[in-house]
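User: I'm putting together notes for a lab meeting next week and I want to include a structural view of one of the chains we've been expressing. I don't have a solved structure, so I'd like a prediction I can at least talk through. The sequence is below, exactly as it appears in our construct file.
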Amino acid sequence: KVATVLPKAQRQQKIDDNLSKASGRTQRENTRGSYVKAANIIKDREIEGDVLDYGAGFGVGTDAMTKLLGRKVDSFEINTENWKGKAKPTYTSAKDIDKKYDSIVSLNVVNVVPKNVRDFIVTDIFEKLNEGGTAVISSRGFKGDVANAKNFEPGLEEKSYLIKVSGDQQY
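Assistant: Thanks for the context. Below is the predicted structure for the 171-residue chain, given as structure tokens.
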């Protein structure tokens, strides 16, 4: 409900602002396997249309899905300083995404932003889906690097941490 109160342009600006703070420090190269699983979901559902990687990180997942699906996968990533994808990101701002998609994949994005921004992201994803489209949304599990984090304080939600990285807090 919070996500629909603000006009679309303001929601998208909050997405860009918060992802620019969180994304650059939370990108991981070891997520290729998760992207292969997401691409297999798309294949198994026989989705033939356009696919967007929403919060593409380094771009390695975009490349993995492009290879497995046998067609170009568009990408949205704000922090492109460490981009390793074969093609440049399709979009670097939520406001620039100018078409609808048959499938949108967003892995390990919603877990690095506060809840209100997470709501904006999910709303934005669904607004960018064609009718009958499929969204594959996942977040990093609590175990591993999240559960073992040091230099943190509890967040407002159960099992959420505000982790201090270089003096800044990230969700």
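A couple of points you could mention at the meeting. The mean pLDDT is 80. Residues 24 and 79 are 5 Å apart (CA to CA).

User: Perfect, that's what I needed.
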